[in-house]
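Summary of Year 1 activities. Much of the first year was spent building the evaluation harness for sequence design. The harness presents a backbone, in tokenized form, and records the residue chosen at every position. We chose the following record to illustrate the format because it has been used consistently in internal testing since the harness was completed.
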């Protein structure tokens, strides 16, 4: 009840919505948004407005911010939480935006106790209780690359982080069973890993086989962008995602 009241107050006290021109531009660039039913689009617009009030967009790597960048990122970021609420993106406040892919430094300790520092090229990254980092080139490309959406991918990681470790288990609703989720996702993940090992074509990006956490993020972006692939290859996973996100993308896909 408290969360619903807080969300209502945010909408009542919030600043004016994303301007009409910027909103129309975002929808024109994002067919997955334009396909929403009109009332859902308006709710998304309000949620994206609040998102931009709470999350700072910070340019890096020489990027110059353009007016369309914020709204386009916000509407994609808010699509997964359209029926969940902005509290699902709590405890972080900024998006760092590079013009293209970036190098990320990671430190790990091997089985012998030696500490290694490596640099990996990335197009997106989410830090627990920290910022989301994105490549604008890949954000823009997400509008034309079927099944891929780097913003939704990183936001799925943020949802996963709400329960701690990134392991593909976000905070489930009371009417969902952790045992069912874990069994269904583990079976699908093992199946995908087998397909990748055998060199077979996969229904989703084979990067999903990297870890259970990446499987959840990859299949979440596919759930919203190419739901027909997900329900055909992994119908039980689709139903779990439908229950968690409280959305059915197939209902507004033609």
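For this record, the design step produced the sequence shown next.
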């Amino acid at each position: 009840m408290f969360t619903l009241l807080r969300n209502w107050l945010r909408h009542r006290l919030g600043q004016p919505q994303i301007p009409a021109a910027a909103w129309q531009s975002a929808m024109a660039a994002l067919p997955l948004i334009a396909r929403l039913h009109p009332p859902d689009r308006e709710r998304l617009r309000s949620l994206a407005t609040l998102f931009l009030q709470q999350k700072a967009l910070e340019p890096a790597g020489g990027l110059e911010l353009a007016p369309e960048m914020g709204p386009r990122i916000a509407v994609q970021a808010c699509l997964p939480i359209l029926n969940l609420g902005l509290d699902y993106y709590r405890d972080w406040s900024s998006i760092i935006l590079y013009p293209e892919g970036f190098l990320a430094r990671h430190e790990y300790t091997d089985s012998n106790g030696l500490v290694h520092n490596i640099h990996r090229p990335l197009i997106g990254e989410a830090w627990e209780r920290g910022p989301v980092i994105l490549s604008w080139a890949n954000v823009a490309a997400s509008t034309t690359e079927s099944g891929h959406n780097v913003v939704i991918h990183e936001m799925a990681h943020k949802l996963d982080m709400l329960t701690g470790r990134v392991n593909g288990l976000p905070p489930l609703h009371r009417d969902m069973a952790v045992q069912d989720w874990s069994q269904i996702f583990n079976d699908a993940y093992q199946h995908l890993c087998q397909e990748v090992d055998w060199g077979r074509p996969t229904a989703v990006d084979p990067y999903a086989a990297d870890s259970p956490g990446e499987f959840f993020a990859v299949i979440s972006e596919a759930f919203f962008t190419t739901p027909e692939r997900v329900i055909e290859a992994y119908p039980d996973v689709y139903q779990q995602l439908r229950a968690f996100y409280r959305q059915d993308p197939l209902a507004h896909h033609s």
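The domain at 163-254 is CATH 3.40.390.10 (Collagenase (Catalytic Domain)). Quantitative recovery figures across the full test set are reported in Table 2.
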